[in-house]
């Protein structure tokens, strides 16, 4: 637990200031010092939730669980919600993005997919309502331009060659 925290602390905007203006660095540190411990920890080590379906003997069950902040958590059949305090990101894996493009969740036989698109957005809105300053909401998909925000925060446990296998 401590090595992960130190890893994310060293990569956070509080220790790396080279790409920020002095005003932005000062603003981030001011917010960090004025927030409670929970929010300050989220600023250093973001929270990642994974939304997916599990096929069981009883049928298909919707599953929400905390995921490690690691590249292995990025899966094609999952939706991820990452809270970094300053932004809230919703990421659709490759297969989920395909389902959305094909409008499968609007068909009667795939109506259970609708939960995969609405629940993460509802959870993100709950986070945004209670947050000051209001965080930026980012929605992206596999190979989307905004995917870089997710890839920047996760631990790169896989090489770029392995990412094509997922």
TrEMBL record:
<keyword id="KW-0479">Metal-binding</keyword>
<dbReference type="GO" id="GO:0046872">
    <property type="term" value="F:metal ion binding"/>
</dbReference>
<dbReference type="InterPro" id="IPR006900">
    <property type="entry name" value="Sec23/24_helical_dom"/>
</dbReference>
<protein>
    <recommendedName>
        <fullName>Protein transport protein SEC23</fullName>
    </recommendedName>
</protein>
<comment type="similarity">
    <text>Belongs to the SEC23/SEC24 family. SEC23 subfamily.</text>
</comment>
<keyword id="KW-0963">Cytoplasm</keyword>
<keyword id="KW-0968">Cytoplasmic vesicle</keyword>
<comment type="function">
    <text>Component of the coat protein complex II (COPII) which promotes the formation of transport vesicles from the endoplasmic reticulum (ER). The coat has two main functions, the physical deformation of the endoplasmic reticulum membrane into vesicles and the selection of cargo molecules.</text>
</comment>
<keyword id="KW-0256">Endoplasmic reticulum</keyword>
<dbReference type="InterPro" id="IPR036180">
    <property type="entry name" value="Gelsolin-like_dom_sf"/>
</dbReference>
<keyword id="KW-0653">Protein transport</keyword>
<keyword id="KW-0931">ER-Golgi transport</keyword>
<feature type="domain" description="Sec23/Sec24 helical">
    <location>
        <begin position="1"/>
        <end position="41"/>
    </location>
</feature>
<dbReference type="GO" id="GO:0090110">
    <property type="term" value="P:COPII-coated vesicle cargo loading"/>
</dbReference>
<dbReference type="GO" id="GO:0070971">
    <property type="term" value="C:endoplasmic reticulum exit site"/>
</dbReference>
<dbReference type="GO" id="GO:0006886">
    <property type="term" value="P:intracellular protein transport"/>
</dbReference>
<dbReference type="GO" id="GO:0005789">
    <property type="term" value="C:endoplasmic reticulum membrane"/>
</dbReference>
<keyword id="KW-0472">Membrane</keyword>
<dbReference type="Pfam" id="PF04815">
    <property type="entry name" value="Sec23_helical"/>
</dbReference>
<dbReference type="InterPro" id="IPR037364">
    <property type="entry name" value="Sec23"/>
</dbReference>
<keyword id="KW-0813">Transport</keyword>
<dbReference type="GO" id="GO:0030127">
    <property type="term" value="C:COPII vesicle coat"/>
</dbReference>
<dbReference type="InterPro" id="IPR036175">
    <property type="entry name" value="Sec23/24_helical_dom_sf"/>
</dbReference>
<keyword id="KW-0862">Zinc</keyword>
<dbReference type="InterPro" id="IPR029006">
    <property type="entry name" value="ADF-H/Gelsolin-like_dom_sf"/>
</dbReference>
<dbReference type="GO" id="GO:0005096">
    <property type="term" value="F:GTPase activator activity"/>
</dbReference>
